Amino acid sequence: MLAVGDKAPLFTLPDGNGKNVSLTDYAGKKVVLYFYPKDMTSGCTTEACEFRDAHPDFAKLNVVILGVSADSVSSHKKFSDKYDLPFTLLSDETKETIQAYGVWVEKSMYGRKYMGIERSTFIIDESGKIQKIFLKVKVNGHIEEVRNSLL
Fold this sequence. Notes:
By secondary structure, this protein is α/β, with parallel strands linked by helices. The chain has helices at about 40-60, 75-85, 95-100, 140-150; strands spanning about 10-15, 20, 30-35, 65-70, 90, 105-110, 110-115, 120-125, 130-135.
């Protein structure tokens, strides 16, 4: 399990246009890396739209927002276009990065157990170290929590 102060696991993943994006592309900037279960679902849409609406505040703080799920590049493109998201969504269909961050977990719904992404957010500092971790995120109020932790 990752902890505050650990070096953030490096990754290179395709964005909604199929262009590879690496964590190292943002060296010298703070990164809000959020993992979410699925494009176009209610909680994930709410979270993405709240990050969208708060994007100017994060930009003023020189903070980059990156969203990651196991959805395909084309799914991310549709999701991003539909909700006019001003930040990058990354596709991790192999789940290597999702597993590296420890957010691929056993979940339970209606008594059925299955593996899935635990909604989580990591703040990575300018030197690539984990500054803050939010696990089992509840969408309501989360963006405020993240923003306040950056101030």
